[in-house]
Design brief:
Layout (H helix, E strand, L loop, with lengths): L3 H14 L2 H20 L8 H16 L3 H11 L8 H8 L12 H13 L15
Length: 133
């Protein structure tokens, strides 16, 4: 007959192999932060820049189905529950929305930032993944 410790190890191994254990831990963290958020004093107001940065990070997290990480960021940062308007984001980041940027603006924002520091790129000289390493 299996001992309690053997049973715990078997359940932990099974949950890890199915990828569920990490999700459960993230969910618990999110709930703890949410509970603490209800009790803590309000933090300083978000700056305009941080509001945009947080929204970009949230878009990235949600695009990749990191829902619990997104909920923790929302709870800790004080980001508004209603996301910023995409047209507003596009204007602020100086990007145009096309089929490649519709999903996530983070890549466009990185491209724009790289252009600021390295100078304008040619029309056919797109930012490649290895440029970000």
């Amino acid at each position: 007959m299996a001992t309690i410790n053997e049973l715990k190890c078997a359940i932990k191994d099974k949950l890890e192999s199915r990828g569920v254990l990490g999700q459960l831990k993230a969910r618990i963290r999110a709930e703890v932060f949410s509970a603490l958020e209800d009790q803590k004093e309000p933090g300083p107001p978000l700056s305009h820049e941080n509001l945009i940065i947080n929204q970009l990070i949230l878009e990235y997290l949600e695009f990749n189905n990191y829902r619990y990480a997104a909920s923790v960021l929302s709870a800790e940062s004080g980001q508004p529950k209603v996301p910023l308007d995409r047209q507003f984001l596009a204007n602020e980041l100086k990007v145009s929305e096309d089929s490649s940027s519709k999903a996530v603006y983070v890549r466009s924002a990185i491209q724009h930032t790289v252009q600021i520091f390295t100078g304008p790129r040619g029309e056919n000289d797109q930012l490649q993944d290895n440029d970000l390493k």
